[in-house]
Amino acid sequence: MTEAAETTAPEPATEHVPNRKECQILSAARTQFLEQGFAETSMDGIARAAGVSKATLYAYFPSKEALFRNLIEIECSQKCTDVPKPDFDLGAEQALRELCAHFVARFLTREWAAFFQTVSSERWRYPELCHLYFNSGKQNVLDLVAGYLDEAKAKGLLAVDDAQMAAEQLLHLTISDLPMRVVLGLELRSEAEYQRVMESGLAVFLKAYAP
After folding, report:
1. 145-204 pLDDT, tens per residue?
2. pTM score, whole prediction
3. Rounded-to-integer distance, Cα 150 and Cα 159, Å
4. Less packed terminus of the chain by CB within 10 Å, N or C?
5. d(CA 24, CA 38)
6. Does the domain spanning 20-67 belong to CATH 1.10.10.60?
7. Angle of helix 43-50 relative to helix 20-40, nearest 10 degrees?
8. Considering only CA atoms, which of 59, 37, 53 is closest in space to residue 120?
Protein backbone atom coordinates (compact mmCIF):
# COMPACT_ATOMS: atom_id res chain seq x y z
CA MET A 1 0.00 0.00 0.00
CA THR A 2 1.43 3.40 -0.94
CA GLU A 3 1.79 6.27 1.50
CA ALA A 4 -0.85 8.25 -0.39
CA ALA A 5 -3.36 5.49 0.29
CA GLU A 6 -2.80 5.54 4.05
CA THR A 7 -5.50 8.12 4.69
CA THR A 8 -8.85 8.84 3.15
CA ALA A 9 -11.30 11.70 3.14
CA PRO A 10 -14.92 12.19 2.14
CA GLU A 11 -15.42 13.61 -1.34
CA PRO A 12 -17.65 16.70 -1.09
CA ALA A 13 -19.66 17.72 -4.10
CA THR A 14 -19.03 21.43 -4.67
CA GLU A 15 -17.03 22.59 -1.68
CA HIS A 16 -16.37 26.28 -1.16
CA VAL A 17 -12.65 27.00 -0.95
CA PRO A 18 -11.96 30.09 1.23
CA ASN A 19 -9.60 32.70 -0.22
CA ARG A 20 -6.61 34.07 1.69
CA LYS A 21 -8.55 36.88 3.40
CA GLU A 22 -11.37 34.56 4.39
CA CYS A 23 -8.89 32.04 5.83
CA GLN A 24 -7.30 34.89 7.79
CA ILE A 25 -10.67 35.77 9.31
CA LEU A 26 -11.59 32.16 10.04
CA SER A 27 -8.28 31.49 11.76
CA ALA A 28 -8.59 34.57 13.97
CA ALA A 29 -12.23 33.79 14.76
CA ARG A 30 -11.45 30.20 15.73
CA THR A 31 -8.77 31.37 18.16
CA GLN A 32 -11.11 33.98 19.66
CA PHE A 33 -13.97 31.51 20.08
CA LEU A 34 -11.77 28.86 21.69
CA GLU A 35 -10.07 31.29 24.06
CA GLN A 36 -13.08 33.43 25.03
CA GLY A 37 -16.13 31.35 24.22
CA PHE A 38 -18.90 32.29 21.83
CA ALA A 39 -20.70 34.76 24.10
CA GLU A 40 -17.61 36.80 24.97
CA THR A 41 -16.28 36.97 21.42
CA SER A 42 -17.22 40.05 19.42
CA MET A 43 -17.05 40.86 15.73
CA ASP A 44 -14.92 43.90 16.65
CA GLY A 45 -12.43 41.62 18.39
CA ILE A 46 -12.35 39.20 15.46
CA ALA A 47 -11.72 42.04 13.00
CA ARG A 48 -8.83 43.33 15.12
CA ALA A 49 -7.33 39.86 15.54
CA ALA A 50 -7.63 39.17 11.81
CA GLY A 51 -6.17 42.55 10.86
CA VAL A 52 -9.14 43.47 8.68
CA SER A 53 -11.73 46.22 8.74
CA LYS A 54 -15.22 45.58 10.07
CA ALA A 55 -16.53 46.27 6.57
CA THR A 56 -14.35 43.48 5.19
CA LEU A 57 -15.38 41.11 7.98
CA TYR A 58 -19.09 41.72 7.41
CA ALA A 59 -18.64 41.37 3.66
CA TYR A 60 -17.66 37.75 4.27
CA PHE A 61 -19.79 36.98 7.31
CA PRO A 62 -22.99 38.94 8.08
CA SER A 63 -23.03 37.97 11.75
CA LYS A 64 -21.11 36.25 14.52
CA GLU A 65 -23.52 33.34 14.29
CA ALA A 66 -22.87 32.95 10.55
CA LEU A 67 -19.13 32.96 11.19
CA PHE A 68 -19.43 30.37 13.94
CA ARG A 69 -21.65 28.22 11.72
CA ASN A 70 -18.99 28.34 9.02
CA LEU A 71 -16.35 27.17 11.49
CA ILE A 72 -18.59 24.29 12.59
CA GLU A 73 -19.08 23.23 8.96
CA ILE A 74 -15.31 23.29 8.41
CA GLU A 75 -14.73 21.29 11.60
CA CYS A 76 -17.28 18.69 10.54
CA SER A 77 -15.94 18.36 7.00
CA GLN A 78 -12.39 17.92 8.27
CA LYS A 79 -13.20 15.27 10.88
CA CYS A 80 -12.31 12.47 8.49
CA THR A 81 -9.43 13.96 6.54
CA ASP A 82 -6.65 12.43 8.63
CA VAL A 83 -8.32 9.16 9.58
CA PRO A 84 -5.99 6.25 8.74
CA LYS A 85 -7.47 3.77 6.29
CA PRO A 86 -7.67 0.37 7.97
CA ASP A 87 -5.45 -2.28 6.42
CA PHE A 88 -7.67 -5.35 6.60
CA ASP A 89 -4.81 -7.50 5.31
CA LEU A 90 -3.67 -7.33 8.95
CA GLY A 91 -6.99 -8.83 10.07
CA ALA A 92 -10.13 -7.16 11.41
CA GLU A 93 -8.87 -6.85 14.98
CA GLN A 94 -5.66 -4.97 14.23
CA ALA A 95 -7.21 -2.85 11.49
CA LEU A 96 -10.10 -1.69 13.68
CA ARG A 97 -7.81 -1.25 16.68
CA GLU A 98 -5.76 1.32 14.76
CA LEU A 99 -8.93 3.04 13.54
CA CYS A 100 -10.49 3.29 17.01
CA ALA A 101 -7.21 4.37 18.58
CA HIS A 102 -7.19 7.32 16.19
CA PHE A 103 -10.61 8.52 17.38
CA VAL A 104 -9.75 8.05 21.06
CA ALA A 105 -6.54 10.05 20.60
CA ARG A 106 -8.42 12.81 18.78
CA PHE A 107 -11.07 13.13 21.47
CA LEU A 108 -8.33 13.44 24.09
CA THR A 109 -6.81 16.52 22.44
CA ARG A 110 -7.29 19.91 24.10
CA GLU A 111 -8.25 21.54 20.80
CA TRP A 112 -11.11 19.13 20.16
CA ALA A 113 -12.32 19.46 23.75
CA ALA A 114 -12.24 23.26 23.57
CA PHE A 115 -14.20 23.38 20.32
CA PHE A 116 -16.73 20.83 21.57
CA GLN A 117 -17.26 22.79 24.79
CA THR A 118 -17.60 26.07 22.88
CA VAL A 119 -20.36 24.62 20.71
CA SER A 120 -22.18 22.89 23.56
CA SER A 121 -22.11 26.02 25.72
CA GLU A 122 -24.49 27.67 23.24
CA ARG A 123 -27.00 24.81 23.14
CA TRP A 124 -29.79 26.85 24.73
CA ARG A 125 -29.41 30.09 22.77
CA TYR A 126 -28.42 28.56 19.42
CA PRO A 127 -29.64 24.95 19.38
CA GLU A 128 -29.40 24.85 15.59
CA LEU A 129 -25.61 25.21 15.83
CA CYS A 130 -25.41 22.22 18.16
CA HIS A 131 -27.65 20.22 15.84
CA LEU A 132 -25.40 21.13 12.91
CA TYR A 133 -22.27 20.03 14.76
CA PHE A 134 -23.81 16.83 16.06
CA ASN A 135 -25.57 15.72 12.88
CA SER A 136 -22.96 16.75 10.31
CA GLY A 137 -19.90 15.77 12.30
CA LYS A 138 -21.34 12.51 13.53
CA GLN A 139 -22.67 11.53 10.12
CA ASN A 140 -19.35 12.17 8.39
CA VAL A 141 -17.61 9.84 10.83
CA LEU A 142 -20.34 7.19 10.70
CA ASP A 143 -20.34 7.15 6.90
CA LEU A 144 -16.59 6.71 6.84
CA VAL A 145 -16.51 3.94 9.46
CA ALA A 146 -19.53 2.20 7.91
CA GLY A 147 -17.71 2.11 4.59
CA TYR A 148 -14.75 0.42 6.26
CA LEU A 149 -17.03 -2.13 7.93
CA ASP A 150 -18.63 -2.92 4.58
CA GLU A 151 -15.13 -3.48 3.21
CA ALA A 152 -14.37 -5.88 6.07
CA LYS A 153 -17.63 -7.70 5.35
CA ALA A 154 -16.71 -8.04 1.67
CA LYS A 155 -13.42 -9.63 2.74
CA GLY A 156 -15.29 -12.11 4.93
CA LEU A 157 -13.88 -10.65 8.16
CA LEU A 158 -17.14 -9.40 9.69
CA ALA A 159 -20.81 -10.40 9.47
CA VAL A 160 -22.36 -6.93 9.30
CA ASP A 161 -25.89 -6.39 7.98
CA ASP A 162 -26.41 -2.74 8.96
CA ALA A 163 -23.06 -0.99 8.60
CA GLN A 164 -24.33 2.36 9.91
CA MET A 165 -25.63 0.80 13.11
CA ALA A 166 -22.49 -1.29 13.51
CA ALA A 167 -20.33 1.82 13.05
CA GLU A 168 -22.22 3.64 15.78
CA GLN A 169 -21.92 0.63 18.09
CA LEU A 170 -18.19 0.36 17.45
CA LEU A 171 -17.59 4.00 18.31
CA HIS A 172 -19.75 3.91 21.44
CA LEU A 173 -18.04 0.75 22.68
CA THR A 174 -14.51 2.03 22.14
CA ILE A 175 -14.86 5.74 22.95
CA SER A 176 -17.13 5.15 25.94
CA ASP A 177 -17.92 8.21 28.09
CA LEU A 178 -15.12 10.39 26.72
CA PRO A 179 -17.30 12.91 24.78
CA MET A 180 -19.76 13.19 27.70
CA ARG A 181 -16.98 13.93 30.18
CA VAL A 182 -15.63 16.60 27.85
CA VAL A 183 -18.97 18.36 27.36
CA LEU A 184 -19.68 18.31 31.11
CA GLY A 185 -16.19 19.51 31.98
CA LEU A 186 -15.49 16.44 34.10
CA GLU A 187 -12.05 15.03 34.79
CA LEU A 188 -10.99 12.61 32.08
CA ARG A 189 -9.71 9.14 32.77
CA SER A 190 -6.07 8.41 32.04
CA GLU A 191 -4.97 7.61 28.51
CA ALA A 192 -4.10 4.09 29.70
CA GLU A 193 -7.64 3.63 31.06
CA TYR A 194 -9.20 4.74 27.77
CA GLN A 195 -6.89 2.31 25.99
CA ARG A 196 -8.19 -0.49 28.22
CA VAL A 197 -11.79 0.55 27.57
CA MET A 198 -11.13 0.64 23.83
CA GLU A 199 -9.63 -2.86 23.82
CA SER A 200 -12.55 -4.25 25.80
CA GLY A 201 -15.12 -2.57 23.57
CA LEU A 202 -13.37 -3.79 20.44
CA ALA A 203 -13.38 -7.35 21.76
CA VAL A 204 -17.14 -7.16 22.37
CA PHE A 205 -17.72 -5.76 18.88
CA LEU A 206 -15.62 -8.41 17.14
CA LYS A 207 -17.38 -11.19 19.03
CA ALA A 208 -20.81 -9.81 18.12
CA TYR A 209 -19.97 -9.50 14.42
CA ALA A 210 -17.75 -12.55 13.99
CA PRO A 211 -18.42 -14.22 10.60
Report:
1. 999 999 999 999 999 999 999 999 999 999 888 777 776 777 777 888 888 999 999 999
2. 0.74
3. 9
4. N
5. 18
6. yes
7. 140
8. 37
